[in-house]
TrEMBL record:
It comes from Roseateles saccharophilus (Pseudomonas saccharophila). The chain crosses the membrane at residues 20-41, 53-73, 85-104, 110-131, 143-165, 171-192, 204-223, 235-255, 276-297, 303-322, 334-356, 362-382, 402-427, 439-459. This is EmrB/QacA subfamily drug resistance transporter. It is a multi-pass membrane protein. NCBIfam families: efflux_EmrB, PRK10504.1. It is found in: Cell membrane. SUPFAM superfamilies: MFS general substrate transporter. Residues 19-466 form the Major facilitator superfamily (MFS) profile domain. Gene3D superfamilies: MFS general substrate transporter like domains, Multidrug resistance protein D. Its main location: membrane.
């Protein structure tokens, strides 16, 4: 006897549930690949004949490409259709992953990471857009909370999985595992993602986009050029000047254009203005930690890749455990006090890694990592909710895209800055034994000071600034 066919309502509910799993899968791929590489960098360096202390370009290329393309994703999705763009993003991500695995040199690996980052840049924004258009407003936060869970699981298993794959196979497999996941995702997109009705799009602000993208790339390359690219000082200075000039030109361009990528009117909102600047400068310091810690553990303390990956678990577990207490703290003490104090605590937690030594008890290492994970997670949640909490319905989408771009830009620039500081101290201390440990210690202190300096930005918040909307926004930006 044939089983009864599902009713249209039941079938619609199943399709919506599968759509959420599909968007969650894309988010998982993106966040997993952002963290799985860090533990494998020393193995990559040995395979490609490079110094492990000069591998930051592999991380910078991915995050910088994402930052550069995020501003265009909304227009591209409207112009070509969300389903078509989402499939294209998955295919591009898989192609980039295969190219990464086949790369014979660091230069080719960095180029392949650019391709991979181009696909990754579209996965979450386009997926979020699909969810926004599919689910009614009263179910949107619940749907996005479901999608955000894999975004937390990716960093949880990424470093451990990366270290394990390096030991049992080779570093190439940290990219090749994306192939079957991507194939499943592309097929599921064809089956479960609705083909949307055409959306009218205005003219894309190409001039503004090129100015903004060039400015971000030039400044990031200038930082990376201080170490990894071997650029001469004059070239670094020129890149920095041209980058700053390009960003200034974008601002002037946006002031006179009726439909810019990001309207300067957004910055009339005080909480967004301080939130974005605080995000940028505090993440410049703290975003380098997933890059520096696995390097420290393997290069100076003799950990295996798998052991170094396991040591990142306390960071993520502590990060997840403090999510529930962050909003009550903000409501009780206000954004100004919480962010100012917590920014200093993040810096102190980072600086504490300057005290690490080969004979340090394992329990103390785990405690150090857990403390950093807890205060860093609280920092991200507070900064993100502050940035978006006062935006109206007409500016929420643009403000959220701007926040995503700043987050990825700060991540790339933070790793590039850490690589430059590492290179400077390597030239000063040398690369043998104790000298390498001294290099890491000095780098941790410098990056911690950068983070602590951003406390002055959060101090500019109005002490009476309402924290009542923190709970309403927290779920929407949980993945940041």
């Amino acid at each position: 006897m044939a089983s009864p066919l599902p009713t249209p309502d039941l079938q619609h509910e199943r399709d919506q549930r599968m759509l959420l799993w599909l968007v969650a899968l894309g988010f998982f791929m993106q966040t997993l690949d952002a963290t799985i590489v860090n533990t494998a960098l020393p193995a990559m360096a040995r395979s490609l004949g490079e110094s492990p202390l000069r591998m930051q370009s592999v991380v910078v290329a991915y995050s910088l490409t994402m930052a550069m393309l995020i501003p265009a994703t909304g227009w591209v999705a409207d112009r070509f259709g969300t389903r078509r763009v989402y499939i294209g993003a998955i295919v591009l991500f898989v192609i980039g992953s295969v190219l990464c695995a086949l790369a014979p040199s660091l230069t080719m690996l960095v180029a392949a990471r650019v391709v991979q980052g181009a696909g990754g840049a579209m996965l979450l924004p386009v997926g979020r857009l699909v969810v926004l258009r599919t689910f009614p407003r009263e179910r949107f936060l619940q749907a996005m909370s479901f999608v955000a869970i894999p975004g937390l699981v990716g960093p949880l298993i990424g470093p451990t999985l990366g270290g394990w794959l390096v030991e049992v196979a080779s570093w190439h497999w940290i990219f090749l595992i994306n192939v079957p996941v991507g194939v499943i995702g592309a097929l599921a997109t064809l089956r479960y993602m609705p083909a949307p009705a055409p959306v009218s799009t205005g003219r894309f602000d190409l001039a503004g986009y090129l100015l903004l993208a060039f400015g971000m790339v030039a400044i990031s390359l200038a930082l990376d050029g201080l170490s990894g690219l071997g650029l001469r000082q004059a070239s670094v200075l020129l890149l920095m000047i041209f980058g700053l000039a390009s960003l200034t030109a974008y601002w002037l361009h946006a002031l006179r254009r009726p439909d810019p990528l990001f309207s300067p009117r957004l910055f009339r909102v005080g909480s967004l203005r301080i939130g974005l600047l605080g995000n940028l400068f505090s993440r410049l310091g703290s975003s380098c930690m997933p890059f520096l810690i696995p390097l420290l553990l393997q290069v100076s303390l003799g950990y295996s890749p798998a052991q170094a990956g396991m040591m990142m678990l306390p960071v993520v577990l502590a990060s997840m455990s403090v999510k529930r207490i962050t909003t009550p703290l903000i409501i009780r003490h206000g954004y100004r006090r919480v962010l100012t104090v917590n920014t200093l605590l993040v810096g102190l937690a980072m600086a504490s890694f300057a005290l690490v030594s080969p004979g340090q008890p394992l329990v103390l290492n785990i405690l150090q990592l857990a403390v950093f994970g807890a205060v860093n997670s609280m920092q991200f949640t507070a900064m993100n909710t502050l940035t978006l909490k006062d935006l109206g319905p007409d500016t929420a989408s643009s403000g959220n895209s701007l926040l995503s771009m700043v987050q990825m830009l700060a991540m790339g620039m933070g790793v590039a800055a850490a690589g430059a500081v590492l290179a400077a101290f390597t030239a000063h201390f040398g690369m043998d034994g104790v000298q390498t440990l001294q290099t890491f210690r000095a780098t941790f202190v410098c990056m911690a000071l950068i983070t602590m300096a951003s406390a002055a930005i959060f101090w500019q918040l109005d002490e009476r600034d309402s924290a009542a909307t923190a709970a309403n926004r927290e779920q929407d930006v949980e993945a940041g």
